[in-house]
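HOLO CASE FILE
Compound: magnesium ion
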Amino acid sequence: MSNIRFKAIEVSLARKRKTLDLPKEKVSTYFGELTFNRNAMREFLTREAYQKLIDVIEKGETIERKIADQIAAGMKSWAISKGANHYTHWFHPLTGATAEKHDAFIIPIEGGNAIENFQGNELIQQEPDASSFPSGGIRNTFEARGYTAWDPTSYAFIMENTLCIPTIFVSYTGEALDYKTPLLKSLAALDKAATNVYKYFDKNVKKVYATMGWEQEYFLIDSALYKVRPDLILTGRTVFGHASAKDQQLSDHYFGTIHERVLDFMQDLEYEAHRLGIPIKTRHNEVAPNQFECAPVYEETNISVDHNQLLMHLMEKVGRRHDFQVLLHEKPFKGINGSGKHNNWSIATDTGVNILSPGKTTDSNFRFLTFMVIVLKAVDRYANLLRAHIASAENDHRLGAHEAPPAIISAFIGSQLSQTFDEIEKKDKKGKVNTNDFNLNILIPKIPEIFLDNTDRNRTSPFAFTGNKFEFRAVGSSANCANPMVALNAIVTEQLNQFKKDVDKLITKNTKKDEAIFQVIKRYITESKKIRFEGNNYSDEWEAEAKKRGLANIKSTPPALKELISKESIKLFENLKILTERELRARYEIQLENYVKKIQIESRVMGDLAKNHIIPIAIRYQNTLIENVKGLKDVLDSKTFVKLSRNQMQTIKEISEHVEEIKDKVAEMLEERIKANRIENLEEQAMAYNMKVMPFLAQIRDHVDDLELMVDDELWPLPKYREMLFIK
Ligand code: ADP
Ligand code: MG
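Model generated. Tokens follow.
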């Protein structure tokens, strides 16, 4: 009988390089050609409709029916000119994927003919039959329906001959059922709060927006190998697999020459991304074998989030074309690096200033430091809320493991900024500050030039300042970027509002504005000190030190999620009108449910594979050993037999021991699952999966991985790490 693994390897080895049929023109000639961008709007809309749409995008104005019809008509003509025949509202339900339901433009008319039709109301609002999207009980209360509503700030685009219209997704009772709704609200709240504070420094600013640039890490494996790994197919990660003799220990993959098959994939992906207006700019090998990264130029956060969702979809699609499976899971392979998504985040003004970019003058530095301190203070106050917004069953494998930021949230700002902060802190202690001789030039340390072009880096920090932006590195590679950004925007907004109150209070007591600001940031520096950490976040010393500082180290998802519904969280999100308590509770419930289901699936897959794939093969191999030993006994004298069969006998015994252990543990795991499934309280159920079911996954794996090294390679059914991780 032939081994399915060998067949898959054969297929993967026979791969020929695909001929790429990419256009020879400059990228700028086709960049954004599949988006209803400003050029397309200008071409396909009346002047009136164009101007109105721009006002809607830029000023958040509402749209009247007549104009909506005009815009829909223009959009339809544009889409048809690009070959589209369907349209869909495209949204980010809480499943983590994106959702779409396609409708044809076509409507029948008299005489057996049809016309293409697309009206304003179809553009603006749709009612997908959405009863199977997760709603955390919200929709069930009334009726199983929600609706989607157009987000005009994100350009419509064409994918697979379908016009996709970015939308939010809300229930009939108005609750958000998606990621985009709270994101848009958080961005609006941040704009207001940051503009108010920025006005202390520059009265001309009218708008502040958050910018984001993600770095997307991922693995590629040959699709033939993927297809014979049921665990990868069903869970996105390998539940078994012994480490390869060589993986990343030589660090020879990082920034190495990109394999030509991979490069073809990347170029194809970039072409598709560019046509959709996704400004992909960077590509390189990552540390682990077969691990890669791509990153765009940063954009306004809402757009950047949409682009990341779209890119993840494109990756899988283009991957298939190149016989690759893209693995977006946070930890597809044990023992080597996992994948993250680094969300680079900053805030910028409509006057073109990146607020988190250090300035060269005292005034601009004062402004920069003020905002820096506010962000740090926010992270210090709400570290657990940030932790909650990156929590997932998948990310649990990564946080705190192999070259991934730990589950402890801390912030890195670099030695030079730390010194600056320390200096500011000391200045007050010496009593130098009083209203008469308040002098910013003396009080605000100059930030050394060298810092401006060459920030020091700390690759181990979950939240690192990297020169002109913060890099939130603890986000999982498969996550929707919106979730952590909602949290970050919200906590910074709250701190900006608090800062304004603190400063204004001093001003009403006759403190001059600059001095009031100085006093408040000085206080914040002291208060938020414990969140700053410049050392190696991967070290055990940091775990101990963090504990001393009172920082939380929440290692798994169920307890991490709990922060979503803490008093502080509810107060924060309700005050800022980003999420209501009901919505937060629904989200908490959805994510707990999701966690339970994920662990349940992993546990089932593992049980099935162990029983149906691994044990029978181990026994088959053991039988050949037994046959061999029996034969030896026949041909050898008994003294020689004892001497020469010792190791084989030992192996036979060990195999039996492993098989027994695996069977027992799979049965015990099943028991625990049955018990957990009976628990009605979701929180307790999630904890049961976490504490009672999960531990078996690691235990069973150990036995199977040992067997992988013992059993004849010819028999082993699952592609091995060394086969999957090195593209031929
Ligand atoms: P790194 O600093 O990680 O070596 P880059 O400087 O190229 O790499 O930036 C990584 C990501 O950060 C890119 O997606 C980039 O667009 C984004 N980025 C750069 N500046 C900003 C900013 N001001 N706001 C948000 N993201 C930014
Ligand atoms: Mg980076």
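CASE NOTES: The CA atoms of residues 256 and 440 lie 48 Å apart. Residues 187-579 form a domain with the Creatine Kinase; Chain A, domain 2 fold (CATH 3.30.590.10).
CLOSED: yes
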